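Form P-L/3: holo structure prediction, ligand protoporphyrin IX containing FE.
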Amino acid sequence: MARTPRTPPGSPFVGNVLRFARDPLRYLDAVRDAYDDPIVRLSGPGGDVYLVLSPELVRQVLVDADAERRTRRDGGPGDPGYVKADLRPELTEPFLGEGLLNSEGGSWADQRGRLDPAFYAPALRGYVGSIREHTARIAEDWRGEPDRDVHADMTDLTVRVIAETLLGTELDAGDVATVEAAMDDLSESFGPSLSRAVLPSWAPRRRPAGFDRAIEDLDALAGRIIEGHRTPDPPADVVTTLLAAADAGEIAERRVRDEVVTLLLAGHETTALVLTYAWFLLSGDESGATTDRLHEEVDALDGPPDWEDLDSLPYTEAVVNESMRLYPPVWALFREPRGDARLGDYRVPAGTPLILPQWAIHRDGRHFEDPLSFRPERWLERRPTETAAYFPFGAGPRACIGRGFATVEAKLVLATLAREFDVGVHEGKLDLDVAITMRPEGPVGAQVSTRSS
Ligand code: HEM
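OUTPUT (holo model):
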């Protein structure tokens, strides 16, 4: 008999989902440590939300259920499969629309097939020049002014790279400021993304202040990016591919805007966060052993790393992987079953939102030895894909399309800057804001100095 998951104590009226929403990361840690259960039920006025704490069940949702559904004849018994749980539809729709992150079914599959080639190795190789150029620009800034906000610098770098490489557009400082202000407003608007469970279904769902302006600004920028491609000789990039599909009637006109906004935001914010967290973690490495080992690797290069050097940077990659373990930019995924489902020993009623939290699973001592220590070496011994307990890019068919892009970019940026600079982040602890991504609450101040000095 399938069971219903246990539920941690909460108030009789608003359940425990509010406790989660108030401080999701601390709550996740506490529930994981107090319960050995693979699934825990949170309850709120808007209904139940299941928290999945077992890596095997996460894999079941993201990978196996999908495979099972594909191989089954329609209408047969078995796992109904899962779709993304949209906990703030009143915000997601105007923001991401039918973009790749948010679409489902055939509409998603066609679009993924259309965009995949822009993320294959030959395409990635073509983006390296832009990554190197913008990293060199940041290095120049660091030489001139050593008092930095590394999160702002990494964001400036990654947003310009994504716009230039995938969207064929050079952004100016004003555009970068617009995107970042929009990101701040959107993060604030989404909060911990749980209103569907926190609010009863009849409660009015207002859009927070700042949300509409953020969307207007992003729409205007996306419009300019798209217009810039309506020339006789447009660049061979994602926007041109999408416009051709729209002109051929394969996708709606609006879809081009949705994808431009999706790629612009999903393609820079997360990578900037990984780099920021990597600098933070390296700064906190008191023995200096991790930094020494990183230096040893990057100093062996003949110059700033290029595409050909990527394979010579295993330790740099391990630093990136370990940073994403401790500080996953995407802290949780959200899914819901299409119909009544069974997950492990548990019954999951149709439509119950599931939280699959990278944050809690990546920091679980049952899966990682000494889980709170920053130890990149662990990724020299085992590959990130070897364990279901590590999924910074998600898993299964909906896994991140930009995984290779992000890995190449993070390795090149980290290695290039680590060759020349020591980075000392001032704060010993980061206050984190939890929304769609997990971001530092304010600037991440750091002192940078050239290593020979
Ligand atoms: C370290 C950097 C990154 C991290 C940690 C990250 C994380 C993720 C995760 C966890 C998902 C799955 C979401 C889900 O299953 O609900 C995802 C999907 C996605 N990511 Fe990334 N991402 C990163 C970089 C990028 C980059 C560089 C791009 C674009 C250039 C990108 C574009 C996307 C898109 C379009 C999707 C939706 C894919 C689909 O559903 O087909 N991401 N990302």
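COMMENT: Residues 50 and 335 are 10 Å apart (CA to CA).
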